[in-house]
Design goal:
mainly alpha; about 70% helix; globular
Length: about 170
């Protein structure tokens, strides 16, 4: 294999890892969204996600940590989101938007290995896919403000190479 082939393979592996983490986030979004229509009880990864899926071990761990962490910290996350979204209560927000905000806010606050910008970019990717266009700016503004006010050291840190980051 040539140097060019090695570099291309490494880039492909980085993209695959990013895609797996994006898939993990979408799985969490779907689970949280479904929970809104169910009884609201805590969801266990074992009960929600298939035993066999396309995620690698690290991505599966990330997915499970997100789902459990968001549920465990939901009162804190919801309070922070509502406080940051002037004039909006968490219940007034569309279900998909508030769950994307929960995922992004959780990553910013609790996932030290996921860079600030990556958390926001991934949340915006989901918003572009699942929300109305005006919601994208709304989500961006809230997550950016949460990061700047509550994790400014993370928000101001240089963005590492995306293949090495939590995306």
């Amino acid at each position: 294999m040539t140097d060019k082939g090695i570099k291309k393979n490494a880039q492909s592996m980085g993209r695959s890892r990013r895609n797996a983490l994006r898939d993990a986030r979408v799985m969490v979004l779907e689970a949280l969204f479904s929970r809104e229509y169910a009884d609201g009880n805590v969801l266990s990864p074992v009960d929600v996600f298939p035993a066999k899926d396309s995620l690698d071990h690290k991505s599966r761990d990330f997915r499970d940590r997100l789902l459990l962490g968001i549920q465990e910290n939901q009162p804190v996350l919801d309070g922070l989101i509502a406080d940051t979204a002037s004039g909006w209560t968490i219940d007034r927000m569309a279900k998909v938007e508030r769950n994307i905000l929960r995922i992004g806010a959780y990553e910013i606050l609790y996932e030290k290995d996921v860079p600030f910008r990556v958390s926001i970019d991934e949340a915006l990717e989901m918003a572009h896919q699942y929300c109305e266009p005006e919601a994208v700016a709304f989500i961006n503004g809230i997550l950016h403000r949460i990061g700047m006010e509550h994790r400014s050291e993370k928000a101001m840190a240089p963005v590492p190479n995306r293949e090495d980051a939590g995306s």
